[in-house]
Amino acid sequence: MSHHFYYLLGLFNQAEIPLMSKKVITREEWERKLKEVKIRKEDMNKLVMNFLVTEGYVEAAEKFRIESGTEPDIDLGTITDRMAVKQALQSGNVEDAIEKVNDLNPTILDTNPQLYFHLQQQRLIELIRSGKIEEALEFAQEELAPRGEENQSFLEELEKTVSLLVFEDAKNCPYGDLLDVSQRLKTASELNAAILTSQSHEKDPKLPSMLKMLIWAQNQLDEKAVYPKINNLTAAALEDPEI
Questions:
Q1: How confident is the model at residue 1 (pLDDT cuts 50, 70, 90)?
Q2: How many CB atoms are closer than 10 A to CB 238?
Q3: What is the rounded end-to-end Cα distance, in angstroms, of the chain?
Q4: Are 34 and 146 part of one and the same domain?
Q5: How many other C-beta atoms can be found within 10 angstroms of the C-beta atom of residue 38?
Q6: At what angle do helices 41-55 and 206-222 cross, to 10 degrees?
Q7: Which region among 80-94, 153-167, 205-219 has the lowest average model confidence (pLDDT)?
């Protein structure tokens, strides 16, 4: 797949494909060109390690470090701490997540008011989910309302969250999706990204970005040529061009 991706980029850079008519590139020619693309194994290993570290697969990262000799750019011990924060939030234990992230680095929340608001918003959502209506109202008034007065976008998000209290069945509320597990995951991802940034590490793994670029490159090339392409990213198998 990597050879396929870099060869696509090479086609654009070299302007090999005419704009007025589609060029037909046979499988034999395509595979021959792919073999000419040289990619260092060290670069591929770094790409894999970047994905494992960013996504928090600490055991896999340690095994890959030993097997490939690729050193991660951060202490693998910090991954365990970061995943503990993420797991607490995904379990709905927001207070524990806040405590853990402050133990990890207290400046993260101090310097990111939007993230802190979203964590407090998630606390409110968990109170509503548990049916603690009076406690939820008190928390919204004391902790979130003052922040909403200072920021219009915060106020709008607070209003959507509080509207869950108006409906007897909150899940049927227009904003009932706030109670979905996906909302926890969204907040956890935002917190995870902030922790990575504080550690001077990319907040997103490079591999998914490369796959998006591969899809984009193929879509662009479709307008200029007929060629073997990858349609199934999981299998990463070339499919013969339709002539």
A1: low
A2: 17
A3: 23
A4: no
A5: 7
A6: 120
A7: 205-219
**pLDDT at 15 > cutoff 70:** no
Q: Say whether both 184 and 101 belong to one domain.
A: yes
| Distance (Å, whole) CA 157 – CA 155 | 5
Rounded-to-integer distance, Cα 32 and Cα 224, Å? 20
Do 39 and 131 have their domain in common?
no
Amino acid of residue 91: S
Paired strand residues for 238: 230
Side chain identity, residue 51: F
Residue type for position 148: G
Residues 188 and 221 in one domain: no
Give the residue among 189, 187, 188, 183 at the shortest CA–CA distance from 208.
189
Strands 229-230 and 238-239: antiparallel
Structure tokens that stand for 44 in this block:
């591929």
Please check whether residue 63 lies inside any domain of the structure.
no
Cα–Cα distance for residue pair 136/79, rounded to 1 Å: 33
b (16+ CB within 10 A) / e for 153-162: ebeebbeebb
Domain coverage including residue 108 = 74-198
Question: pLDDT for 62-89, tens place per residue?
Answer: 999 999 999 998 888 889 999 999 999 9
Residue 55 three-state SS: helix
Measured CA to CA, the distance from residue 215 to residue 237 in angstroms comes to 14
Residue spans of beta strands (DSSP E) within 114-222: none
Structure tokens at 106: 């207290």
- Dihedral (CA of 238, 240, 242, 243) sign: positive
Nearest Cα neighbor of 144 from 129, 159, 132 is: 159
